[in-house]
């Protein structure tokens, strides 16, 4: 049991930030999974549009401090490599 008012407030803040951070991390993971499934369909145009959304999600998470800046940079740099491995045109 917390004895100080400030400790109680800090506990409430920690709970809120924990939930917010979990939601942001979850959206990043979901975006990467979505990109992976789109890459399996081998649709180049769709994969580039999904890639842009995922990159913005990762960047937003890094700017809010949920992900470390270098972790976000590493994730962002690996995704276009996977997209660029696809053939240029699937007719």
Write up what this structure looks like.
There is one protein chain. The chain is an all-alpha fold and 91 residues long. It has one domain (5-84): Ribosomal protein S20 (Methane Monooxygenase Hydroxylase, Chain G, domain 1, Up-down Bundle). It is 80% helix and 0% strand. The chain has helices at 5-41, 44-63, 69-84. Helix 2 (44-63) runs antiparallel to helix 3 (69-84). The radius of gyration is 18 Å and the shape is elongated.
End-to-end distance: 65 Å
The major pleated sheet works out as: none
Report the principal-axis shape.
Answer: elongated
Order of helical and strand elements: HHH
The CATH topology turns out to be: Methane Monooxygenase Hydroxylase, Chain G, domain 1
Give a nutshell description of this structure.
Helix content is 80%, strand content 0%. The chain is an all-alpha fold and 91 residues long. The longest helix is centred in the N-terminal third of the chain and has 37 residues, at 5-41.
